[in-house]
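Subject: complex prediction, re-run

Hi both,

The earlier run crashed halfway through, so I resubmitted it with identical inputs.
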Amino acid sequence: MHPLLIAITFSSLSLLCLGMERHHPCCTTHEWAAGWSRFSLRIAGWLLAGLSLALSMWMKGPANGLLLWLGVLTATGLLLTLGLLPYRAHWIAPLALLLPVLGGAASLLAGIP
Amino acid sequence: MAWLHTWTSLLASWLLLLIFMAGTASYYREEINRWMRPELAGITRVAPETAATQAIAYLQRHAASAENWQIRLPDSRSAAVRLIWRKPAAEVDPSKGRQGRFDEMLIDPASGTPISARDTRGGEFFYRLHFDLHYLPVLWARYLVGFCAMFMLVAIISGIITHKKIFKDFFTFRPGKGQRSWLDFHNVSGVMALPYHLMITYTGIVTLMLMYFPWSVKVAYPQDQDTFIAEAFARLPAPDNLDGPPAAIAPIATMISDARRVWQGSGLDRIIVHAPGRADSRIDIHRAGEHAISVENPALRYRASDGKRLTESPTPGGATQTRGVLVGLHAARFANPGLRALFFLSGLAGCLMVASGSVLWAIKERQKHLKRAHPGIGLRLVDALNIGTVAGLPIAFAAYFWANRLLPIGMADRPEAEIRGFFISWGVAMLVALAWPRRITWVAQLYAGAALFTLLPALNALTTPHAHLLANLQRRDIAMAGFDLIALLLGLGLAIAAHRTWRWKPPQRPHRARTLTPNIDGATG
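This time it finished cleanly. Structure:
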């Protein structure tokens, strides 16, 4: 699997989620996220979404890359919505920062992008 | 629009759940084949030339009179060579239908000796169940499945239109709130995997497309449907009237290396020998899909007697390629393990969407019946069908695997006995649900499914001591170990569902308090 791709896709969805009126209150427990406006969270989320799609297509080619990206989007979206938001909402903001770092390190160690 | 969504989905939902579950299981068809034949452990991988040479030597000894041979070469997911041959008309047992015309055998690619694995349909049963529904006549089953798929497409599109707060509620799941939680869950399982649901339903309709309007094909190709298929899908047409005096087959390795040269080293999928042992015999070599999405892959045709390349499959046109890619997306044969796991997960989301939708209908309907002494017959029927499919089908799937390990190895008609295990347990679950459509039946059946799935790794360890989970993990036998682990996870999921259904308490309705305090939920949405 591709840790970095999964991590960036997760962060992108998390930022988009935190940027929504209903879920923005989850940010208050974490300084970095509380300092961001909803608008800038959303912009960052869309940028990361674009980045993860580009990464996936760069790794797997346009067709397979798009499929992989949609699949990862579904998996991370289900984890976020059914797992984290209702039960561990205060994990989302730190994980959105931490996972891309860990994912990048794991990908470097495994020698894959 | 809401009524359209409600009724198209509800009427098709139970059959759709069976189709969705069988289809989702079919992503791991090869791995299920492998788990259900534990005897296949430790097959060494060899070059396709060796495998094909051994296969032909075996077939010459044991199926010399066959009309044709099909050799499925090993790939990364299955190490054995699968041989299928069409028996001469004189040897066919007409009582066995389509399957009676063929014989098949698994052989070891290195030694060419048959592998004495237990007789089972394995994952092929789920694959066929997905569109043939097993007991129904094939044609009617496929019409029914195609019809359900069209209902599904209508349900998805009308569902998107009805879901007015699709963006506002995008990440919203509020557990523990009765009907609202079910609606949230239904929405989330639909929306999060929406690209998948649209793709799988649309491409599913495409796989059966030739059946919906058969008349135009009949007019254009009055005698010969096979010619139409070959031309429409850019395949090699089946050669006619091959005969001639008996003749030897030139070395297959030479033909394979020629094919590999033409395709610049690409892998091979299968080899078909038409009229084996005759002077006119032809050999078709089919290229493996590798990572191409399309199911249609090019083939080369050789003369068997001297190994000369005669012709190749035509270059596919735009429509042929489009269909190939759409069907390829549906079957996902191109997917590597990671992408396959994501398809499987999205398939599970689809099962949960269908199941939660039909449960939601019953919950909504119950509100209307609360004031009456007895719930209506319609609600009772829906409750029973919900229990019998949502909780009953997992029991049937698990029972099929249990039968594979518990039935005596040498028994007659073993594959059919395993399949009867599936349908008998499902039938019993359905009858119990029809007799007592209540919460206790939900709980009992969910727990039964949970126990059957959770105990599968233990059953596997007891009945095949050399292939238990830890040994498989150590040996890095991913297919065997992965099957046990997924069974365990599915069992745990069912156990959680059973536990929560057991613990559920009907909400106390504080009618007075509600009128005094403003309804916060009502204010926001």
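The first helix of chain B runs from residue 2 to 26.

- K.
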